[in-house]
What we know:
InterPro entries: Cyt_c-like_dom, Cyt_c-like_dom_sf, Thioredoxin-like_fold, Thioredoxin-like_sf. Keywords: Heme, Iron, Metal-binding. Pfam families: Thioredoxin_2. The protein is α+β, with helices and mostly antiparallel strands. The chain folds into 2 domains: 132 residues, no CATH class; 103 residues, Glutaredoxin (3-Layer(aba) Sandwich), CATH 3.40.30.10. The protein is 53% helix and 9% strand. It has 10 helices and 4 strands; from the N terminus they run H-H-H-H-H-H-H-E-H-H-E-E-E-H. It has a 4-stranded mixed β-sheet.
Amino acid sequence: MIKKGLFLLFCLFFTINLYADFQEGKILFEQKCASCHKEYISFKKLKENFFERNNTLLNLTIPTENMLAWAIMDSSRKIGDPNDPEMRQVEIEEYLKSYLANPDLNNSICDQHVLKYYVKKEPMQISSEESELLAQYFMGYKQNRLKNSEEPVNVKTKDFDEKKILQKAQKEGKHIIVFATSQTCYFCKKMKKEVLSLKDVQKKIDNDYIFLEVDVDFVSLPFGLKKYFKGMTPTFFILTTSGELINTYPGAWVKDDFLQILKENL
């Protein structure tokens, strides 16, 4: 019984240490790498960017943090044996030190299709301790990402009750705006900050519309709008009080143009 208790205590201690090392690696990545490597962008959006739009959607010249983690851990050119995590960590550490000291795109483990869009990095020296922390960060990246995304994906806080919305729209005599957005959409954030947050814009929306913001990475568009959605965020759908589509407006808009859109759909 004592041996079993000691074993469980050891496992708990080991797990806590791994988490602590991942957190330290995360901090190190944010300090040394995040200025170049963008934050998480969904693979759906990345595939559209590289394979459908020739990088014109995101204009990436360097892989995002999740692209790096995927290349190291899960791609066809992944580093090390997944069944031997200790040796794998050593191999990842050596690769990071070697590649950062001489960042030759010919030795990159990134997808060959996207390499043509990347620029060469400047050489960078990291210590053995730093390479160890970065390796642990990449090795724990996927699990940590899944753990943190479970709640918003499952809870679906923006999954709307269409029947109640239509009842409210008809009762108040308002049209409906569905704002298709994404957490990784730069122009969505820009428009929310520079247009949608303005008091006169908010007043116009509140007076005449029911406004629904839908993160298309997590939640399906309501009212059967998926068939009209071309994959661009932001996109604004204007619907009648009965949920019938009037107009679709893809892209971001300046204040005066957006106010005109609100006016012309009444």
